[in-house]
Amino acid sequence: MVWPFLAILLFNKFELGAAEIGLILSASAIGAALLGFFVGALSDRYGRRNILLLGSLINLCSFALLAVTQTLAGFILAMTLCSIGRAVWEPPASALIGDLIDNQASRELALQLRYFLINAGAALGPIVGVWAGLSAQQSTFGLTSLSYLLLALAFIWGFAKTEKGQLAKSNGDGSVDLGSTLAILRRDHVFMVVIVANILTMFIYAHMDSSLVQYLTRAEAPRLVELISSMIFVNAMTIVLLQFPLMQLMRKLDINGRIMIGLVILAAAQMWFALNPVHWFWGWMGATFVLSLAEAILFPTMSVQIDRLAPEHLRGTYFGASSFYALGWALAPLAGGVVLEWWGGPTLYWMLLALCGVVFALYRTTAYLSRPQWPEQKEQTISSGESAKITG
After folding, report:
1. Which of 128, 159, 310, 371 could in theory staple to 318 by disulfide, Cβ–Cβ 3.0 to 4.6 A?
2. What is the pLDDT of residue 316?
3. What pLDDT is stored for residue 333 in this prediction?
């Protein structure tokens, strides 16, 4: 409901420039991106339950602080805690699905469903905020804090009700060693290139939440809060309505094939954003729709991709390493703010269009890279010649 309005709040409350807002948003997320990897590895060693509850508690406190703080230092601290809470939450949440579901097809459907439900919430949040007159108001963060309290209670109940045999899988494996895990990751060349490519993909997409809002604010786009709320709603509803039809349509394509199609659509969205007149309301809706199609293909597929690449005993670590995607998210506000301040919005989106080509090229190189072998999981290993063709 509230996160995309944070740039507006910082601008209105503290009269900060685009680069300053970008720096704050970026700095609050960079450390959290690095933390996510270690959290994923720790969840392999110590289990998912307590780390998931810790993430919920951090988010509860961070949004409660956002609701009451009146100083810039307070906002920066709260936003940093928000980013840390997300980094603590995401890797074990995704890995837990793999722990509890053995069948690959069912597991991938669950990962798709999780992303679907996240966006169903994102579709409802802005609309509720607009109807309640809460959008871009600081008090709304209190409702977000309450939602994390309910989430923590739901997890306590859910783990208590989970069958002991399933719960044992998420209680951790003390034999997992972080040092040897890092050595394995360094040898997994396909995974390393995928991480870099997906960091760039996240960097491209993240300008929707940060730079675009600043661009429209400073260009004095008409009906700004309504425009941003509508874009968030179009984004979420496109995914809610089209994610599963798109998944069915692409079921015969391998993972890389789906990602390539998503990248082409993502590039088309950047071109539309670059060319769209600031005052054309429905043009922004159209560009957001195209971007949302790319998101509906790319983001769930990226989660499935990590699940396919990860050996069972290192699933949390691999999902934790995928937290480095947040580096792209973290750097986007800073880079976008600087480009907006010096060259303007259209230049930013032409640069992002070129970056889509770089990501496309990186994925092409994975066909020529190798992966390590895991003696414990020989039946799941993928030869170097097959590594880029992780079939659906």
Report:
1. 310
2. 72
3. 78
